[in-house]
């Protein structure tokens, strides 16, 4: 039997996104009006927006939501494709050219590839990426690549079927790996990153398998420290398996060489010293990277969040639906971003976990 991990025949190289495709998608093309770039009150340029296109998900990851799921948003309260496209177009006109589509699970949103195609055609959108749990990748990979998505992050927290089931409450690992297989066959889809949430007492024995996975296949495996954004509020600092611990564990198996950090990057990236693959460590708890943060977020119902851990949000849906002009909308964004938090306060006395969970923020 072919091992679910055998992807020997998919070794395409990375390519830069050429021209916006998606001939079929009807998009709201906005004029390429260039405006003053978006900056926050700390002088940081904002260039990256994460768009949650739905709060719904087909998984029930323990570090995110309860087994019974959450009360989903009414469909009418969720931004439609034209509204999302208008906001992304306006953000692109003020320098926010990196667009990441998330959820919940974005691929459960009906006609999601059509939305991706609409966004890929917008002037100023330089990079369009998707974060997915991979379960529906087999179905949508071709359409998403054709639509113009040029980077993919696939969330896989375990390469052991039983442990994957235990954490996600879905017996879905084979289908996720098959989806990853399908996606990896598209040269345009690379780089493909695997995001594994690192939890003490769960992830330690996963590290060797993820190391082999990163060395054998064209995927960058990244370990993300467990963050206090879970619906059960079960997060504790003791449950955080730190990046430093993971680094030591990997170095003991295969030595790593740290690469120069990209500005505003969330991950510390390492190449294996023998040249076989990459590992990333995202350490928001033990080594926060807020000083040059360039990210903002938009929730599925149109709330602008200026930080992953924001306790305040700015509503864009109401002005969007009550006829606000482009300039009025942009001013609302500028005012909110001017008050963007300097940093998070996780692990500090007085830290308050946001009421909104990761599934409704989108990461
Ligand atoms: S915690 Fe907030 S400020 Fe820090 S990197 Fe994340 S979004 Fe930026």
UniProtKB/TrEMBL annotation:
Query: Is S-adenosyl-L-methionine given among the entry's keywords?
Result: yes
Under CDD domains, the record lists: Radical_SAM, Twitch_MoaA
This protein's UniProt keywords:
4Fe-4S, GTP-binding, Iron, Iron-sulfur, Lyase, Metal-binding, Molybdenum cofactor biosynthesis, Nucleotide-binding, S-adenosyl-L-methionine
Named cofactor requirement(s): [4Fe-4S] cluster
Q: What class of enzyme is it?
A: lyase
Region labeled Disordered — which residues?
1-24
Q: Name one GO biological process term.
A: Mo-molybdopterin cofactor biosynthetic process
Reported EC number(s) for this entry are 4.1.99.22
User: What's the short name of a Pfam family annotated to this entry?
Assistant: Radical_SAM
User: For the Radical SAM core domain, which residue ranges apply?
Assistant: 41-257
Enumerate the catalysed reactions: GTP + AH2 + S-adenosyl-L-methionine = (8S)-3',8-cyclo-7,8-dihydroguanosine 5'-triphosphate + 5'-deoxyadenosine + L-methionine + A + H(+)
Q: Which InterPro entries match?
A: Aldolase_TIM, Elp3/MiaA/NifB-like_rSAM, MoaA, MoaA-like, MoaA_NifB_PqqE_Fe-S-bd_CS, MoaA_twitch, MoCo_biosynth_MoaA/MoaC, rSAM
Offer an example of a GO molecular function term for this protein.
cyclic pyranopterin monophosphate synthase activity
- The name under which this protein is listed is GTP 3',8-cyclase
| Organism the protein comes from | freshwater metagenome
């Amino acid at each position: 039997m072919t091992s679910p991990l055998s992807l020997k025949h998919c070794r395409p190289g990375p390519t830069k996104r050429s021209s916006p495709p998606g001939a079929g998608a009807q998009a709201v093309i906005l004029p390429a009006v260039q405006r003053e770039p978006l900056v926050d009150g700390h002088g940081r340029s904002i260039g990256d927006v994460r768009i949650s296109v739905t709060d719904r998900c087909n998984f029930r990851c323990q570090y995110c939501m309860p087994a019974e799921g959450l009360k989903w948003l009414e469909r009418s309260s969720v931004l439609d494709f034209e509204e999302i496209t208008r906001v992304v177009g306006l953000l692109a006109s003020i320098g926010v050219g990196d667009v990441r589509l998330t959820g919940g699970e974005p691929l459960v949103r009906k006609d999601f590839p059509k939305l991706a195609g609409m966004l890929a055609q917008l002037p100023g959108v330089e990079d369009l990426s998707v974060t997915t749990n991979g379960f529906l990748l087999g179905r949508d990979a071709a359409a998403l690549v054709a639509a113009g998505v040029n980077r993919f992050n696939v969330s896989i927290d375990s390469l052991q079927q039983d442990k994957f089931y235990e954490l996600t409450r879905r017996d879905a690992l084979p289908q996720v790996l098959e989806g990853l297989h399908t996606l990896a066959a598209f040269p345009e889809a690379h780089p493909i990153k695997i995001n594994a949430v690192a939890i003490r007492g769960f992830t330690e024995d996963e590290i060797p398998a993820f190391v082999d996975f990163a060395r054998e296949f064209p995927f960058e495996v990244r370990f993300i420290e467990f963050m206090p954004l879970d619906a059960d509020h079960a997060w504790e600092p003791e449950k955080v398996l730190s990046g430093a611990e993971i680094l030591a564990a990997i170095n003991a198996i295969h030595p790593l060489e740290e690469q120069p950090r990209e500005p505003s990057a969330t991950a510390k990236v390492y190449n294996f010293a023998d040249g076989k693959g990459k590992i990333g460590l995202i350490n928001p708890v033990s080594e926060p990277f807020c000083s040059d943060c360039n990210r903002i977020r938009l929730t599925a119902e149109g709330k602008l969040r200026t930080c992953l851990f924001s306790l305040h949000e700015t509503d864009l849906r109401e002005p969007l639906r009550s006829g606000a002009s482009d300039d009025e909308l942009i001013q609302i964004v500028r005012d909110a971003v001017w008050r963007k938090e300097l940093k998070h306060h996780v692990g500090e006395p007085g830290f308050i976990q946001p009421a909104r969970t990761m599934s409704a923020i989108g990461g």
